[in-house]
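Example 9 (inverse folding). The structure is encoded as follows.
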């Protein structure tokens, strides 16, 4: 439930919950972040989503952009991204959208953050699995799941935007947090949206 209405779960949720590595009630070795005590959240019986809000961040955008849809929410713990991707690949259809949510670098000086973030973006765009494993992004596991899917379905990553909190807030002193939007498209779609392709240049 969000202020924009209720998002219904897809029946696939129940199917996935019966297959490894998915489960409804995983053991959650969750350490409470410093801000938790100020919110009243209980850490007596933490679930994987007790302190995790990346899923909720996406829902209003999806509701505004898609209208009515059905959701399969996943929170990734210590899991092999390829195993997750292999299971999902058998169940993804042409009308499905896969979203991975993550920050990039955290609390570095502005220029350091840009350097780290653009390196991370480069690894994603090149579908460099090994290189991405070394990046700082806190949600690199779901990103890696998406990268494995992109390899299987021959999706091409396209950078839509990159900024960090210094760009959006104007406060570049101290530490900033990095963000990017990257779309994974079928290669024919990606090429038709490429300005070089439209001009007949660039080659393959």
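The amino acid assigned to each position is listed next.
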């Amino acid at each position: 439930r969000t202020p924009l209405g209720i998002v219904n779960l897809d029946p696939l949720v129940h199917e996935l919950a019966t297959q490894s590595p998915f489960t409804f009630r995983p053991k959650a070795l969750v350490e409470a972040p410093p801000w938790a005590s100020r919110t009243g959240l209980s850490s007596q019986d933490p679930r994987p989503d007790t302190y995790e809000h990346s899923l909720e961040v996406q829902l209003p955008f999806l509701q505004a952009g898609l209208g009515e849809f059905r959701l399969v929410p996943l929170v990734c713990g210590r899991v092999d991204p390829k195993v997750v991707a292999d299971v999902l690949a058998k169940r993804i259809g042409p009308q499905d959208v896969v979203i991975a949510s993550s920050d990039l670098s955290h609390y570095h000086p502005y220029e350091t953050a840009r350097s780290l973030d653009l390196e991370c973006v480069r690894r994603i765009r090149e579908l460099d699995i090994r290189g991405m494993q070394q990046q700082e992004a806190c949600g690199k596991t779901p990103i890696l799941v998406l990268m494995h899917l992109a390899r299987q379905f021959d999706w091409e990553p396209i950078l839509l935007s990159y900024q960090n909190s210094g760009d959006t807030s104007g406060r570049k002193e101290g530490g900033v947090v990095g963000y990017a939007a990257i779309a994974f498209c079928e290669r024919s779609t990606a090429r038709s949206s490429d300005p070089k392709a439209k001009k007949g240049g660039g080659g393959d």
